[in-house]
Amino acid sequence: MKFHINYGSASNIGATCKFNTDATTDFEIENGHVFVVCDGHDGIDGGGSIASRMTADEIKRYFFERSYSNIGNALTNAISYVNYCVNNLATKEEKYNGIGSTLAILIIQDNEAYYASAGDSRIYFYKDGKMMQLTRDHVSDVNNVAKSTVTTLVGQEQNLKFNVCRNPILLDGDERFLLCTDGLTDFATDDEILTLLQDNDLSAEHKTMKMFRLATDKQSSDNVSVQVVDFSTPQPKAEESKGSIWITLTIVGVLIALFVGIYLFYSSQVSKPDQSAVTKKTTESVVSVIAEETLSEQNTTETLQANAPQEEIVAEQPSAEPEIKRPEVAHPGSQLFHMHVIEQGQNLFRIGLRYNVHFSELEKINGDVAKAMVVGSKLKIPVKAKHPVSAGETLSLIAQRYSSTPAIIARANQINELDELPVGQLLIIPLNK
To answer: With helix as H, strand as E and coil as C, how does the chain read?
Structure first.
């Protein structure tokens, strides 16, 4: 039996936070879908947003770049791999010492659900009007204060202890899941969350928006990230609806035939004296009226055409070939920048990989813009050159000219190495690491 997965996913900076250190992602795998929610924790000099974004992105990279036959084993290995990536960054870059991220991950494949978690980001399961928390918070109270300290974070230690389901949940339809950070659960009660989850009149996307509104109304002072996943069986189309249509059409057809038969019978029994004359006279009248209306329309059209302002058409000369600008090259002692517009879902780590620049260098150059990562903002990317393509040039020739490689240039410009380059296309030539 086929199943439907409907979901809503969003992350919000919150009412009082300066930066959003949460991250979310979702992506399809074979016969399934993966959902991820992360909450980054700063190290000695910030970097929480880097930790959460890297955790989400590397989870996706693992499932895209590796083959696996057992989804449960793949889930465990993926988290271990991500922990290595974040910890490697935290130990090599002093300013990122101590960074880490919570993780809540749900994988639905066919009719089974797998899940795992680290930290205090949660996964809830809803079925038949009841809700339960699948994950366990890794926290410890500090001096009995209201706010607890998270004890397990992806990337803070070389060996990560995390929770993973022993056996998948078998799904038969009409189940719901909620993945969220503590920006929601620290301010909303379980009863309030349950009320939204069990509302059958709301789509998964609307439930997500309602969760945000609930956190806002509760004066949440933290980032809020929410994913609502509805797993359901498709509703079969009612066969009686097709039958009803055919019955209706049959009845209408019988009625029409009946009326036509009555009309023909009545017409044949009634005498119609001088009917041909009446018909002829009527026809002549109709023809006369049509002819007069047609003539009137022609006269009106001719009058409008005569009085309408005439448009003067000037044949333009064919434009000359566009002039190819000369390349811009960074000279010793100076820097050349490409302005990159931040798009939804991008992070500094991935942008650095694209342009062959370490993300710490981008953070140094762009300051608060790099830390905030607001969609639509522009990042200054140091580049070696900006090269307009001339006739006959190939990517290989251009790469040789700048002592680079076709792969590096293609990745920076998001093109295929084998693509034919249009004349005039401006290529970004990245720096050499």
So the answer is: CCCEEEEEEEEECCCCCCCCCEEEEEEEECCEEEEEEEEEECEECECHHHHHHHHHHHHHHHHHHCCCCCHHHHHHHHHHHHHHHHHHHHHHCHHHCCCEECEEEEEEECCEEEEEEECCCEEEEEECCEEEECCCCCEECCCCCCCCEECCCECCCCCCCCEECCCCEECCCCEEEEEECHHHHCCCCHHHHHHHHCCCCCCHHHHHHHHHHHHHHCCCCCCEEEEEEEEECCCCCCHHHHHHHHHHHHHHHHHHHHHHHHHHHHHHHCCCCCHHHHHHHHHHHHHHHHHHHHHHHHHHHHHHHHHCCCCCCCCCCCCCCCCCCCCEECCCCCCEEEEEECCCCCCHHHHHHHHCCCHHHHHHHHCHHHHHCCCCCEEEEEEEEEEECCCCCCHHHHHHHCCCCHHHHHHHHCCCCCCCCCCCCEEEEECCC
Strand 149-150 to 130-133 pairing:
unpaired
Burial class from Cβ neighbours inside 10 Å (0-12, 13-18, 19+) for residue 363 reads buried
How many CB atoms lie under 10 A from the CB of residue 399? 19
Half-sphere exposure of 330 (CA within 13 A, CB side): 19
Q: Give, in order, the Cα–Cα distances in Å from 416 to each of 386, 392, 431.
A: 18, 17, 19
Closest CA to 363 of 39, 53, 17, 14: 53
Residue 222 to residue 181: CA distance in whole angstroms: 9
Q: For 66-101, write each residue's pLDDT tens digit.
A: 878 889 889 999 999 999 999 999 999 888 999 999
Evaluate if pTM is beyond 0.70: no
Lowest model confidence (mean pLDDT) among 179-183, 214-218, 254-258: 254-258
Q: Encoding tokens for residue 4?
A: 């439907």
* Percent of the chain predicted with pLDDT > 90: 49
